[in-house]
Amino acid sequence: MLFCQHDWPSLRQLFLQVMKRVKDNKGLIFDNFFRYITNIDMLEEMMWLSNTDTSQLCLLPTSHRQRTVTRGVDKEAKEELRVAFEKQALHAEDRFIPALHLFLLDTVGQQA
């Protein structure tokens, strides 16, 4: 997903393939989703998916996620996810390069 932002909208079809896999797998765990994904179209698609009964999304950092985040299971968790989407949408104009830089720093830091 991160790299699909690089050449949006030409990589939209690749993103839609990723979303199909998420739907087929009935969920996604991406603890740092809100740290790296800033594309408004991608955020809207994930927000829509989070409001369906078909997928379990764990998009908040583990430290914030103390419960399963699924529709109807925990209203507080659902509200926390909604607020995170709204907050991220405010930063949707952020560029891809800073998000990529954070991703690379985090990835290299995990390997050290």
Describe the structure.
- The chain has 112 residues and is mainly alpha-helical.
- The chain is built from five helices and two strands.
- The protein has a two-stranded parallel sheet.
- Residues 67-72 have low confidence and may be disordered.
Order of helices and strands: HEHHEHH
The shape is: globular
Strand content: 5-15%
For the record, give the distance between the C-alpha atoms at the N and C termini, rounded to a whole number: 24 Å
Mean residue pLDDT: 82
Number of helices: 5
Q: Largest sheet at a glance?
A: 2 strands, parallel
Pick out its properties.
112 residues; 54% helix; single chain; mainly alpha; globular; 5 helices; two-stranded parallel sheet
